[in-house]
Amino acid sequence: VQLVESGGGLVQPGGSLRLSCAASGFTFSLYAMSWHRQSPGKERELVARISSDGGSTNYADSVKGRFTISRDNAKNTVDLQMNSLEPEDTAVYYCNANSKWNSYWGQGTQVTVSS
User: pLDDT by residue for the chain (115 residues), tens digit each?
Assistant: First the structure.
């Protein structure tokens, strides 16, 4: 099983980034997918979640209207489009695959929002 995140980096406040998570080794279409983040000294928090068929999404209040989660079950990928980024969005972002049987995590990608 592998979840490989990409797309992180340094961006100025107000800018945009698109994170991508490529999944392999499990039946992707059976898993709800989510993005979480963790900044130093804080607990890991849920940012956005999408159901296995892509029909339902949920967002943390802090990112609603700025972030969009999407998935492609044909390509086994889940993306997080992040707009209007703020310094408070600085964190390591992790991809998670979750079902009633298993939960898998990626290694994380750093997002830094700074001028």
Answer: 999 999 999 999 999 999 999 999 999 999 999 999 999 999 999 999 999 999 999 999 999 999 999 999 999 999 999 999 999 999 999 999 999 999 999 999 999 999 9
Residue 89 to residue 84: CA distance in whole angstroms = 10
Give the tokens for residue 13: 């406040």
Closest to 22 in 3D by CA, of 7, 41, 37, 43: 7
List, as one string, the DSSP characters of 51-103: -TTS--EEE-TTTTTTEEEEEETTTTEEEEEE-S--GGG-EEEEEEEE-SS-E
Tell me the HSE value of 7 on the side-chain side, using a 13 A CA sphere. 18
* Residues whose CB falls within 8 Å of the CB of residue 28, separated by 6 or more in sequence, listed in order: 73, 76, 97
What is the number of other CB atoms lying within 10 angstroms of the CB of residue 104? 17
